[in-house]
Amino acid sequence: MRNEPEGRGFLDLLPAQAAEGVIRLPGSKSISNRVMLLAALAEGRTVLHNVLSADDTMRMREALSVLGIEVQRVAEGVWTVTGCGGRVPVREGELFLGNAGTAFRPLTAVLALAEGNYRLRGVPRMHERPIGDLVEALRQWGAQITYLEQEGYPPLAIAPAERPLGEELQTRVRGSVSSQFVSALLIAAPLTGRRVVVEVEGALISQPYVAMTVALMEHFGVNVTVEEEGRRFVIPEGSRYRSPEVWYVEGDASAASYFWAMGAVGGGPVRVEGVGRASIQGDVAFAELLAAMGAAVEWEPQAVEVRALPAVEKAIREGKWPDGPRLHGLDCDATTIPDAAMTLAVLALFADRPMRLSGVGSWRVKETDRIAAMTQELSRVGAEVESGEDWLVVHPPRRWRPAVVRTYDDHRVAMAMALAAFGGVALRLLDPGCVAKTFPTYWEWWERLVRPMPVVTVDGLSASGKGTVAKEVAASLGWHYLDSGALYRAVAWQALARGIPLDDARALSTLAESLTVEFVDGRVHINGTEAEQAIRADAVGEAASQIAQWPEVRAALLWQQRAMARSPGLVADGRDMGSVVFPEACAKLFLTASVEVRARRRYKQLIENGMHANIAELQQTLTARDLRDQRRATAPLQPAADAKVLDTSDWTVEETVQQALDWVRDRCTGRARSNQKPNRV
């Protein structure tokens, strides 16, 4: 994988061949933010363990500090919170809560009862996420809340509440937009000191999250009576929060879904620790769905292990790419697990039939419109997707496509869509850092658990035999072959044909981005036209060497080269395959030979193709090209630090190929490969 600065960056993933290992989950975001707030409102001091360290939880900690709550870091993942006993110390303040719904919604409810003046704002997307139902419910308790911009949406201004008369407070709230509205009302209710009744109108989505809130409140001393099948909640008069002194945050079940999915489509076993049968999170039900789809799922109180269907696991263990579907398709009402359903949408790519996900209307008001986002991005990798207001149907790809995937500043789009790499194609994920919202170390865990498709690089001097050797190695292994030089020659050929100056880097890079280059039966096709012989002309080769010095051209061709990586493996030849394009390929070769030998080889090649050639001129051309390639500022020609250098001057093609195959089999198969870190592309 490689993350490079382009706007907010991108991450290139090789096709993922297998997944196996053990992960200890970071703390649940939903639990972390809830218990930090409950500890802040409680009497006494609470030590919280395994608190998630991410953008959303940082917003909650910052907000509590602004409100005068003492929050201190003791060690990694360990925080102490000194509660305020239900009376917020600071009565005036401005809070910035980013895009953290688990901070914005409950803090709105708590501060509406805090007898102070506050302003709450977030990032632009937070200001597009509705909060009107919560505000209207709080106004029934006398809350004074003003919309500072658009009616029904943040940012908000809060003034001291006008407390209504009576011994009981009642409010009603719609349950179809966000379960966080109900959780926010329940968390704030004890601050009134009265008996409180919260009634839900209509269906309550994400009901397990409300159940989680109720369970956590009970651990902090407030009992909630749940009536009418979870549509009426009663908090007794005089309720107040008390610290449990110590609380351990369980692992994030929503995040666990990505790793369980890796085990299901990547062979496994993948063991996820920190959440299991004893979890209070509804998203553990995702593992039950995997079992229904055919994956082998083993449960423990605080761990779940997942492995693939036996035929899939067997193929992967034998180093083969599984043929056909990897899971049984099913239709799912995902009302109770909307976050984990994002993962299910990507797993539909691997199913044996189209899958329908319903009950995901809440996706429309999340970090982005997730129904629209997933419809678009799943289509990029080859799926046909139908969608409606609260549903989508995913038809598995007939033909997988490498894709540049947008993530929409949405952590779940990024983490879920990465799983499409198990489909045997390369992915470029834009803005991969958005995972920091809830899982900053996600990509590190990806590298630890995922074994990428094998790539072999064959670099070397011009006419050193790298193309011939690479083709033979690819044919012997049954892998795909990439002649990277053909891409530069294609750009040069088109530039010469169109009269584009070879020193106009910007025009050349635009040209490079517009070309479609394919290798069909070992021959190069450019924009659908066979051009193998045309790009092999000496003048084109010389022009290719000149344009290769421009960083803009190399950057434009980088993704095209990486996108050539397809299952079951790739052999790529060029001049920077091992050092720049595939820097962590499982095996790297660098071929060299004397200029005299290389000139004779090139002479023979040209004559056999019916072209005029002169050995002396060829030696001069090769010498000049060597110097230009070695001295260029961008990606100078040189062996990668871990490449095996082969001088082919005195070897036949057969001898060189055998040397290469021995190196590749030693490095890319069996025990040697299993001990390597996954490739970074």
Instruction: State the helical fraction.
Output: 25-40%
Strand order of the largest sheet: 17-18-16-3-25
CATH homology-level superfamily of the largest domain: Enolpyruvate transferase domain
Structural class, judged by helices and strands?
Answer: alpha/beta
Radius of gyration: 30 Å
CATH architecture of the largest domain: Alpha-beta prism
Largest sheet: 5 strands, mixed
Can you tell me the number of structural domains? 3
CATH class of the largest domain: Alpha Beta
Quaternary status: single chain
Question: What's the tally of helices?
Answer: 23
Overall description:
The protein is 37% helix and 22% strand. It has 681 residues and is of the alpha/beta class. The chain folds into three domains: 2-26 and 250-452, Enolpyruvate transferase domain (UDP-n-acetylglucosamine1-carboxyvinyl-transferase, Chain, Alpha-beta prism); 29-248, Alpha-beta prism (UDP-n-acetylglucosamine1-carboxyvinyl-transferase, Chain), CATH 3.65.10.10; 455-674, P-loop containing nucleotide triphosphate hydrolases (Rossmann fold). Strands 17-18-16-3-25 form a five-stranded mixed β-sheet. A hairpin with a 3-residue loop joins strand 21 and strand 22 (391-395). The longest helix has 17 residues, at 615-631. It is elongated, with a radius of gyration of 30 Å. The model is unreliable at 1-7 and 670-681 (pLDDT under 50).
